[in-house]
Write a structure and sequence with these properties.
Distance between the termini: 26 Å
Order of helices and strands: EEEEEHHHHEEEHEHEHEHE
Shape: globular
Number of helices: 8
Strand content: 15-25%
Radius of gyration: 19 Å
Helix content: 40-55%
């Protein structure tokens, strides 16, 4: 059994409360790891690190440099493909061939946004006067991201890639059931050129860790994949600050086992 830590401001740390929770192998129901049980204090530390990194230089980082960082993350995923796939299968229970495909998909996603970073364009807006009006796209600041259990690293890539390409900093919370592959990848962020505070990974339960992310005033955007009921709660909470929200809700992917299945 391995004791994992959260990744905040470029360092692996325990929860401020010292509390942890167990992570299971769903195939055997055995405990395979522990992770910090983060709460509002840990979210505040991650948000402060992300905000400081954003205004401390990341906002001004060139699109080319952001793209190069994303390409390096893709390279590291490919270099560690077998290791990360084994962690994903052990933690999520999916067949190893699916986990290997997910690693490939994650690498491709980071590459896609690495190339897109240099292609974020504004537009000239026609106006009925002797003037020129331009719309310029700028990073909004700290993005909060909450990912589900079914595609742990791939879903993280789908959210991290566009945020980093756009010049935002990130506080990301993996599902409490499947946090291990993202925490394992976080070991490579520094080597890939990610400055401290640009990507922060917090772990914990939804009410204690996820809800404070949505409510934190320094987190200006929330991206969530999960249930429709939780999506409604996020919209209500984010509305108090007119916070931007992206929701992917209501997956329908049942596995049906009939009575004559060989359960053993």
């Amino acid at each position: 059994m391995t004791a994992y830590q959260m990744f905040i401001n470029g360092k692996f740390v325990n929860a401020k409360s010292g509390k942890t929770f167990d992570v299971f192998d769903p195939a055997t129901e055995q405990v395979i790891a522990t992770c910090p049980a983060g709460d509002a204090a840990d979210v505040a530390a991650a948000a402060a690190a992300a905000k400081a990194a954003f205004y401390g230089g990341w906002k001004a980082t060139s699109a080319q440099e952001r793209g190069r960082i994303l390409f390096k993350i893709a390279d590291r995923i490919r270099a560690r493909r077998d290791e990360l796939a084994r962690i994903e299968t052990l933690n999520s229970g999916k067949p190893i061939v699916e986990s290997e495909y997910d690693m490939d998909d994650s690498a491709v996603c980071f590459e896609y946004y690495g190339g897109l970073a240099t292609k974020i364009n504004g537009e000239v807006i026609p106006v009925p006067t002797n003037a020129m009006v331009m719309a310029v796209k700028e990073p909004m600041g700290v993005a909060g991201q909450i990912i589900p259990w079914n595609y742990p690293l791939a879903m993280a890539a789908w959210k991290l890639g566009p945020a980093i390409a756009a010049g935002c900093t990130v506080v990301i919370k993996p599902a409490e059931q499947t946090p291990l592959s993202l925490l394992a990848l976080a070991k490579d962020f520094e080597a890939c050129g990610v400055p401290p505070g640009v990507i922060n990974v917090v772990t914990g339960m939804g009410p204690e860790c996820g809800a404070p992310m949505v409510a934190h005033p320094d987190i200006r955007k929330i991206a969530f994949t999960g249930s429709a009921e939780v999506g409604k709660l996020i919209m209500r909470s984010a509305a108090d600050q007119l916070k931007r929200v992206s929701l992917e809700l209501g997956g329908k992917s049942p596995n049906i086992f009939f009575a004559d299945s060989d359960f053993e």
